[in-house]
Amino acid sequence: MIIEVKNLIKRYNDFLALDHISFSIREGEIFGLLGPNGAGKSTTISILSGLTGFDGGEVLFLGKKIGRNEMEAKRELGIVPQDIALFEDLTAQENLDYFGRLYGLKGKLLKERVKEALAFTGLTERRKDRPKGFSGGMKRRLNIACAILHHPKLIIMDEPTVGIDPQSRNHIMQSIKELNRMGSTIIYTSHYMEEVEEICTKIAVVDRGRVIAQGTKEELKSLVSSEEKIMIDLSSVNFTMVEGIKKIESISECVVNGNRLDVVGKKGEKNVSRIIQVISESEADILSLNVEKPSLEAVFLTLTGRSLRD
Ligand SMILES: Nc1ncnc2c1ncn2[C@@H]1O[C@H](COP(=O)(O)OP(=O)(O)OP(=O)(O)O)[C@@H](O)[C@H]1O
């Protein structure tokens, strides 16, 4: 395990911001912390980054216990904070030089890494410009470049796509996958479930300072529903076909809507293959077939009774 968080407690005066949070992250994972505003994501990240103390529980980083307000192994960490941290009056390259030195890089290696980070974040051509004139997305990309110069084992990103243009967003999503392929473990916080679904291999759903569910997206989705809905558009529909589908053991419902069938069945029972077999015995052609997958939004709604964006 690269990180183990056990029963983490954090209070702000009388307010319990983290209420016995526990999760562990394996090397090589893209771990998502998904939750609405105020759930406790930034507080958790801040503790993991060694920036904030905590009131109870334990955090292990690479097997070593982390104290209340410090972090021994900061060199193995790359942090992309929610609030962009750049020097507006230094050029992109000078910012990178500065952060590289903070991580102990110098000389030829520093030069190489700055070049690499600029190329990786698509900022090579803007290296001599100051972030003052950058778009929000470019600033965010520069912030990411600053965090990866020293090739950290663990990269922590706190809502890196909030308020940026779609092009930068896509760039960041691709970069995260690439950094992961190159060997970094990533912690990614977001209240955008689509992003978490797209990139995370493991997800902890947090709400009101507690982890309310965790697992792979498939595991989380299976909490919500043991059924799947299959929608089929056909060239024609006939009685024999519908009755044939209804007779399949795992199918509980088959509703006809013009030339479309909405079929509900128990998950994991090869419903699609069985339905296709029945249809192929008729004259009809299948024009399209879709299996509706429950979303993480549905998971959150089921577990809390509220929407993620409330
Ligand atoms: N310095 C602070 N003093 C008092 N309360 C705080 C402080 N920082 C955070 N909180 C409270 O702790 C709770 C968790 O906040 P946190 O920023 O960790 O949530 P979050 O999930 O990161 O939300 P967001 O998506 O808005 O960043 C919130 O209710 C917040 O108001």
From TrEMBL:
Span of the secretion signal? none
Coiled-coil intervals in this record?
none
Residue span(s) of domain ABC transporter: 3-233
Which protein is depicted? Answer: ABC-2 type transport system ATP-binding protein
Q: Which organism is it from?
A: Paenibacillus harenae
**SUPFAM superfamilies for this protein:** P-loop containing nucleoside triphosphate hydrolases
Query: What InterPro entries does its record include?
Result: AAA+_ATPase (IPR003593), ABC_transporter-like_ATP-bd (IPR003439), ABC_transporter-like_CS (IPR017871), P-loop_NTPase (IPR027417)
GO MF terms listed in the record are: ATP binding
User: What keywords would UniProt list here?
Assistant: ATP-binding, Nucleotide-binding
